[in-house]
Request: fold
Amino acid sequence: MARKIFRPIHQAPTEIDAHAIKGFLEQNGLQAVVRAQRHDFKGGNISGDTLPPRHLMPQDIFVPKEDMHKAQDLVAAYQRYHKKPN
Reply:
């Protein structure tokens, strides 16, 4: 059986936002995966105390390559519905 190729379709600002969108995609029949952004600070003196907690860091949402267009449309619809007032 061939492995599915996943592609990033959206970057959510927090883990909570990412999992809300993931749930919305899954409710609409799509498989989705959330991964935290990797932050490599090469050459600097960065301690763990300097970084924000992982759940407050940007999160990438991935879907199977063949579902990318549908997922992007769904994310856009989700964002329109959940638009935060200025």
Summary: The mean pLDDT is 84. The CA atoms of residues 23 and 83 lie 17 Å apart.
